[in-house]
Automatic annotation (TrEMBL):
Signal peptide: none
Top-level lineage group: Bacteria
Designated name of the protein: Stage II sporulation protein M
Coiled coil regions, renumbered to chain: none
Keyword Transmembrane helix: yes
InterPro entries: SpoIIM-like
A Pfam family it matches: SpoIIM
Alphabetically ordered keywords of this record: Membrane, Transmembrane, Transmembrane helix
Transmembrane feature ranges: 12-35, 77-98, 105-126, 132-153, 173-195
Taxonomic classification: Bacteria, Bacillati, Bacillota, Clostridia, Lachnospirales
Length: 202
């Protein structure tokens, strides 16, 4: 019974997260359309042989990996830092909404600039790393939510009780960290290779 309740609660968390994400996507797409005149002038680079240059560019995969990994690590650590505070859940809502906003904006910009090919370009930019990042994000969100609620919204806890709950999450945090590392490797090496080879078609 307890397991069923836990699964049901996790499903509700995912449903709410999906709704917040989709609202963000919608707002991002609307924003991209409303402000397209403002940023399209700065996108002339895409019409001046950008992808031709990308096709022959010598990519330093090591530096690219370092940039991607550090960027992901900062977001990951920030998420867990907020998760052990009383404002953890509002931060999670903001984080999911902002991710949706960014997704909607980038997708809309791609479509406005390249038409139907823009959808394909967007998918290229997120493959294959988001096959790793997406499930990690869901698990992190669920675990972070449970951590925050257990610390502040269940029974009152003293410092020792809170420390125990946090320490119980450390193995999960470390495992997810290693998976993020794999995702960063796939983004730096596999994704950049795919984009470079497909650049000639844009």
């Amino acid at each position: 019974m307890k397991i069923r309740y836990g699964v049901s609660k996790d499903a509700n968390i995912i449903k709410i997260a999906v709704m917040v994400f989709l609202v963000g996507v919608l707002l991002g797409a609307i924003g991209a359309n409303v402000f397209k005149d403002a940023y399209f002038k700065d996108m002339k680079i895409f019409g001046e042989g950008y992808f031709d240059k990308l096709y022959v560019l010598d990519i330093d995969h090591g530096k690219l990996f370092g940039y991607i990994f550090w960027n992901n690590l900062k977001k990951y650590l920030l998420f867990w830092i907020f998760s052990v505070t009383v404002v953890g859940i509002p931060y999670m809502v903001f984080s999911v909404g902002y991710s949706g906003l960014s997704t909607g904006f980038l997708l809309a910009v791609s479509v406005l600039k390249f038409g139907v090919k823009g959808i394909f370009l967007f998918l290229l930019y997120i493959f294959p790393q988001y096959l790793i990042y997406f499930p990690v994000a869901l698990i992190t969100l669920i675990q972070g939510y449970h951590l925050c609620t257990n610390l502040y919204f269940r029974v009152p806890l003293n410092k020792k009780g809170k420390a125990k709950i946090i320490l119980e999450k450390v193995p999960t945090i470390l495992i997810l960290f290693l998976i993020i590392l794999i995702g960063a490797l796939s983004e730096a090496y596999i994704n950049s290779f795919i984009i470079q080879k497909m650049a000639r078609y844009f």
